[in-house]
C-alpha cells in the first residue's frame, strides 16, 4: 500500500486548523435560507463542520467510503462474548461479498464498503479484503498488554494511510466501522482509562451477553486496567495496553482524514473511543468528525460528550460494522438538498432576520 504517512509525528504535524472563514460562510448561508434560524440543528452544524474541515462552503458528498477495520482480540478467552473469534472472519467475508448487515444499508446510501484485515486471526483467503494485518490478533489484556507500542503505531499509521488512499481515490467523506469479536470489551477498557470511569459505567452487553457474562466482562476490564496501568495522558499507551488493532487503526483513520481535510463519520462505541484517542493526540483532528448516533452501550453518550459532538441519530443502535455511520449519510443528503436547493429569504421577498432581531 502507498505510504502517505510514515511516522506518528509527521501525521500529527500534517493536521491543519479548521478554516473558520469557510465555516462562517456555511453558517451564513444556512441563516439566509427561508426557515427558522438554526432549525435543522445538528445537520446545520455538521454541514458547517464539513465546510471548515475542507475549507470549502460548497459542500458536496458525492463519493462516500466506509472503512470496516477487522481484528481479533485475545480477551475473548475470558468468556466476555457470546460468540467465539471465528465470527470475525465469517462477517469479514460477508462484508467483502456485500452481504453483511451494513452492506445492505451502504447500498441504499450509495456508500462503498471497504473491509480491511487490521489484525485478524489466521483465516481462509477472503477475496476483496484489504490486507493490513499488523499481527494475528492481540494478546489477552487481562494477562498483559494487548500489543507492543510499535505495533500500535503501525496500526495507527495503516489506518491513516487507508484514509489518505480513499482521499486520493476521490472520497468526499469517510464512514468508520469495525468488526472484531471482543472489541466492546477493549473499547470499554480504553474508555475507562481515558475518561476515568469504573467498569460498571462503561461495560455493556456488546453483541449480546448473559448476566454472568456481563459480570465476567466487568471483571476482565477491571483486571486489565489494574494490571496494565495505562497512562491516560498517553492515548497510544492506552491503545497498546488495553485496546485493539481495530481501535488503533480507526484512531489512525480519524487522524488521516483530518490530515487530508476530509470529513469522517463516527459510528458506535468502538469508533467513538478511537475518535477520542485521535482528538486527544491532536485536538484539531476533532474538527472534521461527525457523530452519527449514540450507541446503546453504557459509555456511548459519555464518549460523545467528551468529544463535544452532537449525534444525528438516537435509536438505541448497537450493531457496529459502521451501520450508524452509514445511517447518517441519507440525513446529510437531506440537509444538503436544503443547503443547495433551499430558497433564501430574499428570493421569497422576505426580510432576512438575525438572532439579535426577535420578530413578533
Ligand atoms: C454475527 C455478528 C455480526 C456483527 N456485526 C457487528 N458486530 C459487532 O459485535 C462485535 C462486538 O461485540 P462483542 O464485544 O460482544 O463481541 C463487533 O464485531 C461489532 O462490530 C457483530 C457481532 C456478531 C456476533
Ligand atoms: O456501539 C457499537 O458500535 C457496538 C455495540 C455493540 C456491539 N457492536 C458494536
From TrEMBL:
It is an enzyme of class 2 (transferase). GO terms for molecular function: nicotinate-nucleotide-dimethylbenzimidazole phosphoribosyltransferase activity. The active site is at residue 321. Keywords: Cobalamin biosynthesis, Glycosyltransferase, Transferase. Coiled coil: none annotated. It catalyses: 5,6-dimethylbenzimidazole + nicotinate beta-D-ribonucleotide = alpha-ribazole 5'-phosphate + nicotinate + H(+). Its EC number is 2.4.2.21. Pathway: Nucleoside biosynthesis; alpha-ribazole biosynthesis; alpha-ribazole from 5,6-dimethylbenzimidazole: step 1/2. InterPro entries: Nict_dMeBzImd_PRibTrfase, Nict_dMeBzImd_PRibTrfase_bact, Nict_dMeBzImd_PRibTrfase_N, Nict_dMeBzImd_PRibTrfase_sf. Belongs to the CobT family. NCBIfam families: cobT_DBIPRT, PRK00105.1. PANTHER family: NICOTINATE-NUCLEOTIDE--DIMETHYLBENZIMIDAZOLE PHOSPHORIBOSYLTRANSFERASE. Catalyzes the synthesis of alpha-ribazole-5'-phosphate from nicotinate mononucleotide (NAMN) and 5,6-dimethylbenzimidazole (DMB). HAMAP family: CobT. This is Nicotinate-nucleotide--dimethylbenzimidazole phosphoribosyltransferase. It comes from Gemmiger gallinarum.
